[in-house]
Structure formats: structure tokens, C-alpha cells
Write a structure and sequence with these properties.
The chain is mainly alpha-helical and 139 residues long. It is built from seven helices and two strands, in the order H-H-H-H-H-H-E-E-H.
Amino acid sequence: MCIGDNIKKVRESRGLKQSELAELVKVSDKTVSSWEINRTEPKMGMIEKICQALNCKKTDIIGEDNNPLSIKDEKDIEKTLQETLNQLESGQNGLMFSGQALDDDTRELLKISLENSLRMAKITAKKKFTPKKYRVDEE
């Protein structure tokens, strides 16, 4: 199943209209429609918002088959992310941008960006260092 199909399935199971989901994630209902007919795919940050709005897991939207990371990898990413954020916040001046403390929205965007970077690094490392005969997804 594609991401759009999964969004539609979960949205409908929650009894929401496309316009209601669009309002919750602050996009147009045409954008939601475009996702659901698989014309476009939401970016990872938007998938996070969709999951929060639909009260579901990322794997419910992305699907198990599209995630090459194991449960251990996911836990490692979460642990590294929390450690990194804690180190940044407890540093000399904490998280600052142009001399100003970060607001909650900017902090959340930073967290999403760091998580995506950690995830991409983990996937790249798996592809690079896993012998071909043990790879699950041969391309």
C-alpha cells in the first residue's frame, strides 16, 4: 500500500473528512486529496503532523515495508536524538538563534530535522556496510 492509501485508510477509520484532516495539519483539502490519490507524498515533518492529528504511528502511514530500520535502530535513533537535544539545551547558552532562545515551534523543527538526519545516516550506513547477500531490499 502507498502512503496516500494509508493516510486515507487511517483518516476514514477515525471518521474524519479530508477537510477536517487538512485543518488539523494546516494544509488545504486539495493537498490532502493529492496525497490520498498518490499524486504527491507528504514530507517527513508533515507525516509527523498527520500522525499526531490521526493519533497513529508513523508505520501506520509509511508502512512497515518502506522502513528498512529495525526496532533496535528506531530505539537507537530516539536515544541519540534525546541525548543530542539534552546536550544542546544544557550547553553554555542552551539553544539560541541570533541571540534569542528558541521558541517551541523552532525547537520542534530542529528535533524533526535531527531525527531525519539520524534516520538517513542509519539507513545509509546499513546499505553501505551490509553485504549484498544479507540485504533485504535488493535494488
